[in-house]
Amino acid sequence: MTMTAQIIDGKKIAAETRAAIKTDVETLKKKGVQPGLATLLVGEDPASKIYVASKHKACQEAGMNSFNHTLPKDASTETVLAKVRELNADPKVHGMLIQLPLPPQVDSERVLEAVTPAKDADGFHPTNLGRLISAKDMAEIYARNIPIPCTPLGCLLLVESTGLRLAGKNAVVVGRSLIVGKPAAALLLASHCTVTIAHSRTQNLDAVCREADILVAAVGKAKMIEGSWIKEGAVVIDVGINRSPEGKIFGDVDFDAASARAGWITPVPGGVGPMTIAMLLKNTVALARKHARPV
Ligand code: NDP
């Protein structure tokens, strides 16, 4: 099969974004603010510990402050809430991230809602999600400094990196999770695409996908989106991370087959994945910016 699609290099774009963030951090430091991210991990989940460590490393590389808070795995909701309130009040903390999942005895909803929307680094607070939906376009989202869920924002920047004009394009998002699908659809709508959200009850998914000028796949099923479902020249953003029994990672899209039809496509790994942490830093720096003194 001949490959025609251009590869959207998420690794490279994420590195460029992080370099730009580093410059922003230097500017903010001159204005008296060192952007700071606090993470709160409850328990010892090994995967969560790795994620948290990589977030701190990225903060340090960008010249940001990062504060790691860990509570024991049997911590009560009240204990977690007390820590959240402490971080809400800490002037060095501009962004806060509660590492999910929380242990079962902790009321996750109460904890997430207790994070002040002004420090909601991953944009999942209902107030910020409401603001995201209320905004009429991306310009308003940026102007109002609304934190944007990180993986969906990464997807949007990867689409924008193609140079394609988004207004009026048909965008199909497969998956409707709160973490990826729904906010990705909201961002594409705010970019003036005509948006379809598909999910497990969608009928004729192949036909729905064939209409997509922009296809975002966030399902969690290896190679579920077949090459023949791709519209010629489409932008294909593959969010899926699926591990085979041998430990190999596959996206939700059949990459080789889709590459023969798509105009642009993200690889897995090396596409959406590297963008997520870069967007977390971007949100935190944006939240810190309003504390900067004028020079
Ligand atoms: P969820 O499991 O929360 O959501 C999956 C969605 O896919 C649901 O809306 C579900 O529909 C839909 N779905 C399931 N089966 C089908 C089907 N046969 N046809 C159409 N739709 C279907 O997953 P997430 O959104 O959290 O994650 C999706 C993928 O993205 C995963 O592989 C995850 O690992 C990856 N991911 C990657 C990130 C990154 O940084 N690159 C970050 C976050 C996630 P329904 O609602 O009807 O059940």
Blueprint (SSEs and pairs):
Blueprint: E1 6-7, H1 10-30, E2 36-42, H2 46-61, E3 65-71, H3 77-89, E4 95-98, H4 108-114, H5 126-134, H6 138-143, H7 150-160, E5 170-174, H8 181-190, E6 194-198, H9 205-210, E7 214-217, E8 235-238, E9 242-243, E10 249-250, H10 255-259, E11 264-265, H11 273-289
Parallel strand pairs: 1-11, 2-3, 2-4, 5-6, 5-7, 7-8, 8-11
Antiparallel strand pairs: 9-10
Could you please describe the fold and organization of this structure?
β5 (170-174), α8 (181-190) and β6 (194-198) form a beta-alpha-beta unit. The model has no long low-confidence stretch (mean pLDDT 96). This protein has helices spanning 10-30, 46-61, 77-89, 108-114, 126-134, 138-143, 150-160, 181-190, 205-210, 255-259, 273-289; strands at 6-7, 36-42, 65-71, 95-98, 170-174, 194-198, 214-217, 235-238, 242-243, 249-250, 264-265. It is of the alpha/beta class. The termini are far apart. It folds into two domains: 33-122, Rossmann fold (3-Layer(aba) Sandwich), CATH 3.40.50; 147-274, NAD(P)-binding Rossmann-like Domain (Rossmann fold, 3-Layer(aba) Sandwich), CATH 3.40.50.720. Bound molecules: NADPH dihydro-nicotinamide-adenine-dinucleotide phosphate. NADPH dihydro-nicotinamide-adenine-dinucleotide phosphate binds next to α11.
